[in-house]
Amino acid sequence: KKLNIGKNVSNKSIASVNNEDFKEVFHLSDISSNSNLTQPDLVFEFDLPRNQSRKTDSTCSSRSSNTHSQCSDNEDTLSANDDSSNEEESSTISSLDSDIEVNSVLFDFPTQVICLECLDGTLDSLLNEENEMDADEWRACLFQIIMMLIIYQKVFHFTHNDLHTNNIMFKKTEKQFLYYRYNQKYYKVPTFGKIFKIIDFGRAIYKYKGRFICSDSYHSKGDAATQYNCEPYFNPKKPRLEPNMSFDLCRLACSLFDYF
Questions:
Q1: Which residue intervals define the domain Protein kinase in the entry (predicted)?
Q2: What is the mean pLDDT of residues 44-49?
Q3: 84: part of which helix (H) or strand (E)?
Q4: β-sheet bridge partners, residue 180
Q5: Which has the closest alpha carbon to 160: 213, 102, 99, 124?
C-alpha cells in the first residue's frame, strides 16, 4: 500500500525466523532433490552429431550409389540439414564460451614463489656451441660463480644442493669488467660479455635471521629424501648428514666433468 508523505505509521511487530523454515535447506541430502536450492547453470551439455550413417528408407545398395536419383536427392537434403545443424550448434557453443566467465578465489592458500629476471641462456647451452669458451673465458665464468657462492655462504650459510650447468645462466652485458673485494684483495675480472647468475633454489638450505630454512624436498617422500639427514626431517635410524658448503662446487665440477 502506498504511503502518503508525512503520514505517521505505527510500528508493526515482526515475527521471528523459525528454524523449521531452513530445516530442509541445511539437510545433508542430494542437492538435486532439494527444491529450496538452485544450482547455477554453469555446465552446458550438447549432443553433437557424429559422422555416422543415418537410417533411411532408401533402397539404394550403397550410400555412395547413384543408381537412383531420389536417393541422391534425399542424401543431399540430409547433408544440407546436417551442415545447418552443425553451424547452429557451433554458433551456440561459441556464444556460450564468450559469455561465460568463471572466477575462482582461494583464501589463505600457501604459496612460495622464486622469481628472477629474464636471462639469455644457460651455461649448458654455451657448452653446446661450436665456438667453445677458451681458458680465459672459463676462468672468468667460474670466478663469478665462486664469488657468488662465497657471498651466499657468508651471509646465509647457504647451500644450493643442485648446482649444475643448467642451473647457471647468463645475462649479456656491455660491461667489460667486474670488480670484487675479498680478504682485503681486489680482483678485476673480465666479463667477456656475460654476467653469470645462479638459478633454481628449490633445494636450497640456508639461514635467515637465525631461522633455519629447509626445502620439503628432503622430506622422506620428497625427491631429495636421501641427500641429507638433518632437522627438520632427521631420521634417528640413519647416520646424521648435515649440509656441506663444499658440495655445490663438487656437484658443478661433476656435471662439467661429464661434458669434457
A1: 1-260
A2: 50
A3: helix 69-99
A4: 187
A5: 213
pLDDT digits (tens, 9 = 90+) for 102-140: 777 777 777 777 788 999 999 999 998 888 899 999 999
State the Cα–Cα distance between residues 140 and 152, nearest whole angstrom.
Answer: 19
Question: Which residue has 535447506 as its cell numbers?
Answer: 25
Distance CA 230, CA 236 (A): 9
Structure-block grid coordinates of residue 68: 537412383
Cα–Cα distance, 141 to 133 (Å, whole number): 10
Which residues is 185 bridged to in the sheet? Answer: 182
Q: Could you tell me the residue ranges of all domains in the chain?
A: 19-48+69-99, 121-259
Residue 126: in which H helix or E strand, if any? helix 123-127
Listed residue (64, 166, 79, 69) closest to 119, CA to CA:
166
CA–CA distance, 133 with 99 (Å, rounded to integer) = 56
Closest CA to 245 of 215, 207, 202: 207
Spatial separation of the C-alpha atoms in residues 100 and 42, rounded to whole Å: 8
